[in-house]
Amino acid sequence: MTLATVKNSRLGATTLLTFVILALAWFVGFASRLFAIVRFESIIHEFDPWFNYRATHHMVQHGFYNFLNWFDERAWYPLGRIVGGTVYPGLMVTSGLIHWILDSLNFHVHIREICVFLAPTFSGLTAIATYFLTKELWSPGAGLFAACFIAISPGYTSRSVAGSYDNEGIAIFALQFTYFLWVKSLKTGSIMWAALCALSYFYMVSAWGGYVFIINLIPLHALALIIMGRYSSRLFVSYTSFYCLATILSMQVPFVGFQPVRTSEHMPAFGIFGLLQIVALMHYARNRITRQQFMTLFVGGLTVLGGLAVVVYFALVWGGYVAPFSGRFYSLWDTGYAKIHIPIIASVSEHQPTTWVSFFFDLHITAAVFPVGLWYCIKKVNDERVFIILYAVSAVYFAGVMVRLMLTLTPAVCVLAGIGFSYTFERYLKDEEKNGSGAGSKDEKMYDKAAKNAKSKTTTTEGEENGVSVNVRTVIAVLLLIFLLMFVVHATYVTSNAYSHPSVVLQSSTQNGDRIIMDDFREAYHWLRENTADDARIMSWWDYGYQIAGMANRTTLVDNNTWNNSHIALVGKAMSSNESAAYEIMTELDVDYILVIFGGVIGYSGDDINKFLWMVRIAQGEHPKDIREDNYFSASGEYTTGAAASETMLNCLMYKMSYYRFGETRVGYNQAGGFDRTRGYVIGKKDITLEYIEEAYTTENWLVRIYKRKKLPNRPSLKNADVTIPIKGKKSQQAKKQEGSNPTSRHCHQSLIYFFAAKKFAEMGFSTNKDCMPEFQLLITGLKQIVQIVDNSDQQFLKGGEMKNIKILESKNNNLCILVDNSGKFSYVGEFSEEIQKKKEDIGEVIETCGGIAIPGFVDGHSHPVFAGDRVHEFAMKLAGASYMDVQNAGGGIMFTTTRTREAKEEDLKRDFEKIAWKMLKNGTTTLEAKSGYGLDIETELKMLRVLSNISPQIPLEISATFCGAHAIPKGSTEIQQTRMICDELLPKIEHEKMAGNLGNVENIDVFCEKGVFEVATSREILQRGKEAGLAVNFHAEELVYIGGVEMGAKLGPNGARPVDKKKAFLILYLCPMESYMTLLPKL
């Protein structure tokens, strides 16, 4: 047998053995993650996985493009959520692709089963990726060790068990594979490997927000190599190729958008890209200039360019072109930052610092061995091993800051532990017999003494190299094998008992060891699904939003996305407030049911009472005047629900919902009623009564409690004749006498009041029949201030320098009053006098404000209140630096709302508009300029104008409707086509409908005069045609680019204009001679 044959045979055996070991690692990793399936059933775990499954199911049913444009009305009521623009779609696309492939092969599997088994399947791919990475860093043997470690390591298993359908299930594979490709590209200097690395990075970006770790670690590696003097053309080619492709590819993920070039977290990667260009230039110039010139150029140039880069960066941040570092970034460097500034982040248990116990629990023996592997890499350092050193050091730090980041530490620990074990076994398990026989064969031919001396010298040298005897090495090897077996036992135990329990199903054991399954969560969600209306809205803490939407299929107010802190704070405020105040919030949010988690019966520590302080803190951050954390502690500063609990705690909604009827319950044989097993004491208040809510359902073990908001029949509401706004004060004696006979008298509590325009009082149906009505409708007294604006009835508005002289009546003794007659007009405004006192008998309602302030109703001069859909997702694009036109060109902006508005029914638009109108009234707006403009076709524009003209007479809001059909150019049309449609078809129909009395509120016409929309010529034609139809001229102009729109509009005699950019303030001069108003909008 030839030497080549022997080598090929050994290579084949090694390859086969490697394949078998990797296959077994994959199988063991997959099988060890199935405990939850075996013990319970095929079910989705935790919270986030329920949204991921729901989104995947929607994508499979409706297709990828519909998924990207899916508006989820079940989430964040009343805001909703654009799913495609607010998620990393890689997880959904991966599952959908597997489903499509299996379906194409006639293996028809429900998408839920794919979601359940996806993470265990990818654990095998992660093991293979780790093998290739470690092989490139050290050796194939170390790669096999690392693959076996990560296949069963609890630190990775915790996020990849069956049913844990979360982004990390595929992201760790993408992480390891990207690192492998980066190391490969660095070693070879190949553009092909760098391009593959960028593609893998793109997949990582689409799958998980943790991609930021990659895009900062790879630049850090490049920087370290430059500082260490290890710059090479391989580094230049690999990094520049990777960075350019990776940046472009990552921007294709909708949720990421422009962040790679507009956020501070991505700027270091760009900085290293620039630095590499400078270093490459220096290396090119080094052999072409003198050393002194080179040092001057290098030091001086680098200093100048570095300083300039820093100045430019801060200028871009200051100018708003680059977003500053986020709060999440600061929370990684200051562990107390989140608790103070972002309590919603600090409230999540996996965002807490990691304990030493957690390190051992998740890593076991690998935590002790990985420093050995790290030392070996430092001792035999090269370009690629610098990478794993940086990876390990940074991952250790971040894992210590946040327990969730143990997930990014585990792969590094497995790689270095694999190197440590492999190198140690390689040193201590050498085949010495082979070495000895080789030496003996040579010595057989050498009978002289010199040969024997040479043999002795060789043996001594070998012994000195090994440093330990054969027996010691054997003992060490056996101990290492025992440690490895212990690691396997520990990993299996932890996976089975700690990480394989779905959060929606709880398990307990009896003294005999029998299992008790508590299925309260699914019981409650099933009840909601079967016993509530399809459009019922459920208020709960954000932890349970995804589960309610996924299992109960009901609308929630907040969920685990946590993108809107204000909305979550409002829910927290409701939970923290007393019942009546909470009822006001729930009514405003249209809440039907409230769900709370209560563990006092079974001793479940993850209930809402234990989370309640975080609700208080988050609410306090947004509503510091109403909610104070100190009020929920006992007199001794203790957080308790027992006898020492504060009155605020005992009367808050969360306490009442958790402990309602619990005081009558005995949870143990010798325990008193109301004993809370979770807290370990009797509750402080047992006789709890509910006034504004009622118990709807409580699960078997009291774990989930559901309450229904009552619809109070006697709740005050504004009616035709009941138009006074709530005022803080006390009833007058006259009013008290009239209460029995005057059903419209209301005396509520507010310190600021508004009064409507006299015109609207006359239109709202006040009766003028003197037989049934007194001479005067309303008297408001006790005012300390009345803001009149003008005191001359012939003067309609202020302009120029007069705007500084607003007419205000004031009284130090609160003696001002307002008298309104039967026609709805203000009969008298001024000091309360004896003459007014004499008229009190002829006044329908008298309100004393005790120092209130009366101001005119607000006029909203620019609004689009009739629309459908929601554009919340565009905030991410704007924060990433997208301009108004960037958003619109990407299919967002006006076009997005236009599509939803066209699809909406007229009655739905009217219902939603009337809700908005009531909220405007509540906040003091009494006159509204309301535009159409979200139809952009004949049918929808007329539909919107009808909604504006047919508002319910019950709503006392004065509306001046504006036809804004020239708001944008819809897809499939051009500027000329849209102009012809407006002038030749739509405006004649509006004119006809106005003459028929169907569009009584339509008084104005508006056009968006802007480059790329409607230019000056077409804008002039549209406005002129509208003017001929009897509409007053309004226009948008010079918002983005100066094209002469203001000058054009000024010549038409406009009522209103909207120049926005402060840099074009000189254009206001064109409008000064006109009696027109201008709306100045802040630049977002």
UniProtKB/TrEMBL annotation:
GO terms for cellular component: oligosaccharyltransferase complex. Gene3D superfamilies: 3.40.50.12610, Metal-dependent hydrolases. Residues 538-594 form the STT3/PglB/AglB core domain. Residues 434-451 have a biased composition (Basic and acidic residues). Pathway: Protein modification; protein glycosylation. It is found in: Endoplasmic reticulum membrane. InterPro entries: HutI, Metal_Hydrolase, Oligo_trans_STT3, STT3-PglB_core, STT3_N. Its main location: endoplasmic reticulum. Residues 17-417 form the Oligosaccharyl transferase STT3 N-terminal domain. It is a multi-pass membrane protein. It catalyses: a di-trans,poly-cis-dolichyl diphosphooligosaccharide + L-asparaginyl-[protein] = N(4)-(oligosaccharide-(1->4)-N-acetyl-beta-D-glucosaminyl-(1->4)-N-acetyl-beta-D-glucosaminyl)-L-asparaginyl-[protein] + a di-trans,poly-cis-dolichyl diphosphate + H(+). PANTHER family: DOLICHYL-DIPHOSPHOOLIGOSACCHARIDE--PROTEIN GLYCOSYLTRANSFERASE SUBUNIT, DOLICHYL-DIPHOSPHOOLIGOSACCHARIDE--PROTEIN GLYCOSYLTRANSFERASE SUBUNIT STT3B. This is dolichyl-diphosphooligosaccharide--protein glycotransferase. It comes from Caenorhabditis angaria.
